[in-house]
Amino acid sequence: MIPELGHFALLAALAVAIIQGTFPFVGVWRRDARLMAVGVSAAQAQFVLILIAYACLTWAFVERDWSVAYVAANAHSQLPLMYRISAVWGAHEGSMLLWVLILAGWSAAVSLFSRSLPADVQAQVLAVLGALAVGFLLFILLTSNPFDRIFPVPEDGRDLNPLLQDPGLVIHPPLLYMGYVGFSVAFAFAIAALIGGRLDAAWARWTRPWTTLAWLFLTLGITLGSWWAYHELGWGGWWFWDPVENASFMPWLVGTALIHSLAVTEKRGLLKSWTVLLAILAFALSLLGTFLVRSGVLVSVHAFATDPARGVFILTFLAVVLGIAFALYAWRAPRFAADGELQWLSREGLLLLNNVFLVIAAAAVLIGTLYPLVIDAFGLGKISVGPPYFNAVFIPLTAPLVLFVGLASAVGWKRARWPEVWPRIRLALFIALGVGVCLPWLLHRHIQPAAVAGAFLALWTLIMACEEPWRRWRARGRRGIAQIPRAVWGMTVAHIGLGVWVLGLTFVTLYHIERDVRLGPGQSAEVGAYRFELQSVTPRPGPNYDADQALVVVTRDAEVIARLKPERRRYRAQGTVMTEAAVDHTPLRDLYVALAEPLEGGDWALRIYFKPMMRLVWLGGVLMAIGGLLAASDRRYRLARWAAHPAARIDGVPA
Amino acid sequence: MRIRYLLPALVLVGLVLLFAFGLQHDPRQIPSPLIGKPAPAFTLRLLGEQTPYTQEQLRGRPLLVNFWASWCAGCLVEHPFLMELARRGVEIVGIDYKDTDTEALRWLARHGNPYRTIAADTEGRAGLDWGVYGVPETFVLDAQGIIVYKHIGPLDEEAWRTKIAPLLAGGAG
User: Fold this and answer.
1) Which chain B residues are within 8 Å of A381, Cβ to Cβ?
2) pLDDT tens digits, B28-78
3) What's the predicted TM-score (pTM) here?
4) Could you report how far apart the first and last alpha carbons of chain B are, in Å?
5) Deepest of A132, A340, A489, B116, by most Cβ within 10 A of its Cβ?
6) For chain A, what are the domain ranges?
7) A308·B23 Cβ contact <8 A
8) Which CATH number does A1-160 carry?
9) Contact call for residues A458 and A502 (beta carbons, < 8 A)
10) How many contacts, defined by CB atoms under 8 Å, are there between A and B?
11) Torsion of the alpha carbons at B77, B78, B82 and B83, rounded to the nearest 10
């Protein structure tokens, strides 16, 4: 009964979404304020209905209702409650439901927090979001209904994919989807701007916090995904250039470009059509990511079930949505041609340059991801593009990007001259060069040119990120620091995050040591300066798996550093084997042990890795997200609301 | 309207055409670099025994080498068809991939055994050398022990009729 209720709620949500996607447009066309206002209530009603559907599916999982096919396929009677709740998004149907729930959530948020927008803009934005929801709801109802029943009812479920039974993966998809779907808001704003022909500083100011929020969720989602792969896949890798990873990385790159381009559009009124294009592209790449993952066009380690009918649906949807968006762009964007002049040596010039690098990087990732498909299409055979391509293309593209990030903060808007800029960057340049040469030597007694280059870029970014707060401190002391707006702090923290990330990336890539060893109890292996001794391997049953747990004692100069307990789990329902790596970490190094396979004679195969500065890679991602949060919560966006629509203050409507 | 504003739309059209093509092709038909090469060497033991089994014993007649496991759902899907092939007299050598002997034997006892011989690849070493992505995967070997075809995923009547049977007929003749 409850699953039918959920199904019905989804159908009702579709009806509401159709209203949300049409009435406000008609209202704008006829200048009818009441029709325009329908968008707000429809968005909120739609969110409530989808929430009900979502709750129904969760209920079916919690109650172990095996008569629901999706539940039977993705849960098991012994599966712990936390994973039964997260199993809702453990496979295709449920993740699409989560996707529309988040879309409806963003749409409801826009309806609540954008009351100060001009009524026609708000109506158009909500209508675009409603139209998108229609597409996704149809997709779920027609091709991937999670409420389908199965008969005869199985005795027990087939269990959740063991890969997904990890706390990290419980929150990874929701974060990623918050990011993906969040770009739909920027997209809706872009479409509204194209239709209404209105694209000014106020438009950029409305769009900025939404874009930054979506971007920070995507940043967190990607960071968490990388952290999860590192701990759970047992290979010590943290980024695989897998098609599914690329699918989340491309919108991130374009979203980063969009955030910076919006800044230029707001401050200087330049790059308008470029900003609109980026807003469309960021969401286009999110849709493309969904298509790539869900259609099975590309093979990936992410084992989601695939179905060609779904692929055809998403492809059609993608073609219609983006076809309309790009046609509108081709028709209306020429009128946004800027009047101002753009100097290369100015902040906006450097931001545009960074934009170009980011977009080319995203294009390079896209080409690498689609290349196998293209080769296949022209009948040239089947190939796969691996990390060598991506590393070869990506590093030369990002190195100058990082250089410009530091430079841009020393250069003012409009026009700058070298004689002014040089004194600001001189000191940072020398410090970064000096420390960049010393750091590899100090830490690893071995200098590689690539390590010096990476360390230099990282330090340069770190020092230059603090340029603006430092300048304000010198000018006005403590008061200067207190007056720094959150947006500037956000930029500072995010750029520090970038520096930390580059530092971690450089050292972990160049100085890691990996060894596959065979050890019996009591035997030990040396990796770098560390000695790893396998003391014992003991069985340890879990709730729905049986594990072998090893005890590995790590010593350095006869001093015990860590006692690591890696596990090898065999999940009972599907018999799948998973490794749980054990890691001892400090900011400067990770010691990583994974228990691979039992060998004859009581010996075990172990994978032992020494990974310098691994933590910094994720710390960088987290700092970027914190920077995003600071920037999105800037006072200016809240004030702007009052200023844009003074009537709101009189009505007492909370903004 | 200036042409550069139309560029994104044109790129989209190209991509959509590409994907429409991609949807009609099975991404699982990944080429194996091993096709046309001799079967990679391995030293395994027979399932449930200690008798060694090597790639040498695959020579002399065309046959199928099927990587499977008791924990694999796809293997159960193709199982009835393998039984049918065995009845038709096709020799299938099973390689039990990353599995335990007890569970594999229990699985065979419950569902039936389509294999003439089964080697146990408990650690997945042979699977690694053979480039196995996941189970089930089926290799077609000719009488000289050369790999002539690789099928990824559950084997079915269609794949057998269109791809494998002609190869075996040619190899045998």
Assistant:
1) 31
2) 555 566 788 888 888 899 998 888 898 888 888 889 999 998 877 678 878
3) 0.80
4) 66
5) A132
6) 1-160, 415-511, 513-615
7) yes
8) 1.20.120
9) yes
10) 85
11) 10
